[in-house]
Every structure is written in C-alpha cells, then in structure tokens.
Request: fold
Amino acid sequence: MVRLPLTPAEVERGQRLGALLRRARGERSMLDTALDAGVSPETLRKIESGRVATPAFPTIAAIADVLGLSLDAVWAEINQPDGEVEPTRPAGTARERLAS
Reply:
C-alpha cells in the first residue's frame, strides 16, 4: 500500500497538535507522560515535534486523557488557522470530569 504525501494543512495541524501537547505537558516529563498514556516516549517525542502529523486516534486520546485535555478542545485548537490558537488549560482527567 502506498501512503500519499501529507497535505500542507495536515502538516500544519500536526505541528499545532505537537505544540498543544507540549504546552499541556508543562513541566511534566516526557517519559512519565508517555508511560502513563501507554505509548513509547519516542512516539510522544515524534508527535510533539510534528514528525508524526497524523497519529492514531487512540494514541491522542490516551495522551489527552493523561494531560487532562478534552478531545473536543484538542480538535478545536488544532483546526484553527495560525494566529487564532488560544492556550488550552488542562481540564482534569476524564475520570475527574465524569465524577463532577
């Protein structure tokens, strides 16, 4: 199977995703975040650097949950054109949101 090259929009969206995850991770180590999400640190590194512009949904869902980000917030932020990105605060873990 031949994989088509990514469009410029997909590349930009991947870069915005990486920036969002880096900001949300803050001072938390990449290793701890990756292990808590059940992904390899190298996978998280590639996503944060934009080298993997279209990561698998379960991967992003797991990382977002560990960082306390809602998937709606992630989707909204990465689909905004440059210059319109607003900082996203972690919203608590999915368990905390369900308990409230």
In short: The helical segments are 8-25, 30-37, 41-49, 57-67, 71-78, 94-99.
